[in-house]
Amino acid sequence: MITISLCLIAKNEEKTIGNCLESVKGIVDEIIVVDTGSTDRTTEIVRQYTDKIYHFEWIDDFAAARNYAFRLATQEYILWLDADDVLLEEDQQKLLQLKETLDPSVDSVTMHYHYAFDEFGRVSYSFRRNRLVKRARQFRWHGAVHEYLAVSGNILNSDIAVTHRRINSHSGRNLAIFEKRLAKGEPFTPRDLYYFANELRDNGRYERALEFYHRFLDTKEGWIEDILATYNKMADIYYRLGNEEKELDCIFQAFRLEAPRAEFCCRLGHYFLRQKEYRKALFWYKFATELERPKESWGFFHEACWTWLPHLQLCVCYYHIGDVQKSYEHNEVARTYRPDDPTILSNKKLLEEKLQPQE
């Protein structure tokens, strides 16, 4: 059986850190928390789980803080989490089993990251991350903001999921760090350009976000998944700005790069639905339902596009072209994913009434 150090950095996380540590306390062999300047009860709560609390002077560099935490680990493997992450009971059991059976030749274990959820508590946004790494390999974090852990060697893709339980709203902290670096004239890597553009977009600064998305694309050095995500986010911005021509161009650029993804098929379907070109919209939504999600991809997936959304939109399309039976069938498929969705339930009632034999 392997041994595990949990390494976590935190600042003012009193609302979440207890749940995080509670979810792994019986699994990991060591808990290391690096505090970067808390003024609330964070360290008081942490002391209920470990005495290995260290302080790190914040220098606007997440990678530096995480690398410091990694250097303090003493066990064979290092698990990293954020203070607002948890392992649900099912995933706790999976991690325990992995701990008992993991081949020591494995250098890194990836896990799903369930990052966002819909109004019914179902996963709406997910991706993979390297989560459990062999300490002896001395893997290091890179990047002041939106840092990443560079790993190599024997990598195992597990079915374990880490669940993100954000409580605090977006603070603008990451954007401020990027702005400071930009003002100092620090060079931005392609990855920096991409994540800076994301922060600008998330803060509603759409025109400037587009500028930096284009600068990222112009480097021609980005990770393919980041490039695809860029075209998706740019298409969304152009949609918000009412520029349908450029919205379409982004979608088609993505099709040139990679086999169609459900996200882009749904976006194109939505374009034709807005134009009331229902048969064209129907084609793209139907295509989305037939796609198989790339199994080995580390990309970001909008779960709705791969599950219920195209079926709900097919319900709309078929209704408008007069095929009530097909409309009902696709609404029923959507209902299997969202049984409590009021829109889907309203559709069901309306369509069942229309399908009743006329007396």
From TrEMBL:
The organism's place on the tree of life at top rank: Bacteria
InterPro entries noted in UniProt: Glyco_trans_2-like, Nucleotide-diphossugar_trans, TPR-like_helical_dom_sf, TPR_rpt
Residues spanning the signal sequence: none
SMART domains on file: TPR (SM00028)
CDD domains: Beta4Glucosyltransferase
Glycosyltransferase 2-like domain residues: 5-143
Stored PANTHER family: GLYCOSYLTRANSFERASE (PTHR43630:SF2), POLY-BETA-1,6-N-ACETYL-D-GLUCOSAMINE SYNTHASE (PTHR43630)
Protein name as annotated: Glycosyltransferase involved in cell wall biosynthesis
Species whose genome carries this gene: Brevibacillus fulvus
